[in-house]
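Entry for the shared binder. Reason: the reviewer on the internal report wants the predicted structure included alongside the sequence.
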Amino acid sequence: MDSHVDRRAEFTRGLAVRLAGTEPAVLAQRTGLLEETVKAVSSGDAELMSWEVVSACLAAAGADGVEVGEVRGRWSAAEHALWDEWGEELRAAFERNGHGKPTKAVEAYREKVPWRQLTERYPVTFKPWTEPTFAAERRLPDPSAAGDIRDFYLLLAELRGWAGSPRQTEIEKRSWGTLPDATISAMLQKDRWRTTSDRERVRVGHFARACGLPAAEVARWVEAYERLRHVPPTDDLARARAEGAELRRRLAAAQAEAETLRERLAEAETLRERPAEAEGLRKRPAEAGEIRERVAEAEGFSERPAAAGSRPRTEREAAPARGTSPRERWFSRRRRSLSVAAAALVFAAGAGAARLAGVATSPADRALCFSGTLHLVGSTAFERTAGIIRRGYEARCRDARIEVSAIGSNEGVRALTTGNAASTIAMHDGYLASDSDEVRLRGFRGFPVALVAFAVIVDKGTNVTGLSLQDLRSIYAPDGPTDWKSIKGGRDLPIRLVSRTEGSGTRGIFEEHVLRGPEPDLSSSDCRRKDDLRAALHVIRCERSSQAQVLDTVDTVPGTIGYAEVHVASDPRRYPNVRIIALDGRMPTASPTMDRYPFVAPEVFYTDGPPPNGSAATAFLTFLAGDHARRLLRQAGAPVCVGPDSLITAPCQPN
């Protein structure tokens, strides 16, 4: 009894006997599966269901560990027999179509492919999936229960948990490469609901099947996505209006308070020339305490405006989605501008209070120093600027240590928590969206530091020295040129795009300010040739997790084009084969401005809410608002975002 039909029949008989005591409707209710799926599990005419589905039915029927093990053995035998029977045919089919698009290959051969087998690389090889480990009690989430697109993506993450939380690389294998690791990571991000498209609908289907669902269940998830793709979270416009009015009121109060503190700061600066009177000011602890209280009140305006007794905001009450009306977008932009301006005023108030309160430093500014370690985590493009500030601060404050970890803008933001708000600051290229979860729900505060220019870079072997924005956008278009000889002055070399991974702040700026649209699909791992499973994609495009990796790739792989922070890209010793090119005749400069060169953005420090008073984060950010930090940045060629008047300069304002 070696044939697939016999093995499947044996498996089906044993499973039917074990499930016979429980009605299909009851099993469906307990498992969350469709009743037709439950009936098909024990039907000899149905496909061999995934172990995810079979094990869920066994658990719902009360099977013990011994019974589950016996059924698992029969299921594995049926699967292996199926593969032995169809393996050579499928291998030959994939070799004939080895350069076809993965999605089409999956659709063409899905019915004949054993559920837990996959193709990995060309020439075709097949390996079983990793056996999942399930939670003790598991129920398939119901996509029809989602009320909006945000809810849907939360349920999609729960679906992965139901399937035993397979790793992203495992899901990539299960989908035959139609869902690359980077795409899966993006799909599971909490803000993915803002990206809706027909292509995303297809991805949802492949994700559901990779989690072990049969065709009928997959269709249910795809239909739910289609129903909800244009349904944003509700009640955002009214909430935005109320918060906007409250922020305007608090901003006016903070401006008045800051003006008073500036006057008193000027008075204190005058008293420096009269030591006796200054000493008298330092001996007035009551006044110092009063100033601290007033600064605390000024800082209070930037707290999240939640009325007393109000319930916490839920995920359903999140930010306005893309596609909202112009009036909604205006309120969103207005609120972000108010928040950023208010943050700068809080800094000014804090700096003034430290001096007026007479907390002695060297002997002037010891309030700006902390003892211990502060962590700056995030953008790799921000690393240079952060290093300049770190060295200047540590030279001034001998007991302070600042650790800079360049792990990417998105990862830096993820590292922020309420628990580490006193000792951790995220580095981000550009501003977070004002309607992001971090800003709206968690109260993240952004503090712009300096403008940074990014460079579009190419391999010198391309012979290209400049591109128009139109040419650049055509290169990144879905149907653009694939060889540099198609570009004026270019040589006969294939175009190879080297990009940052999804979630990178630099990539976001590149897509928003330069391309005005998304980059093409990932098609290559080594940046030299297309992966076999993605051979049908239009252009060679790979992704790298840091700008150093992008620069190394452009420096070593012929025909490559990418992007990186201009100062780092301008190192001819380290990257001798990298050329910075002009865009519409404009080169990036050490002192960029938004109106002359498109690839420019502010570097922004983010904190999880206002950092606690007296913390390392507060001391460091207060230092940034001072003259010494401005001098450090200017000497390094970085245009500062906060001027001597403590207001944010126009190029650093949110768009």
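Summary line for the report: The first helix runs from residue 4 to 19.
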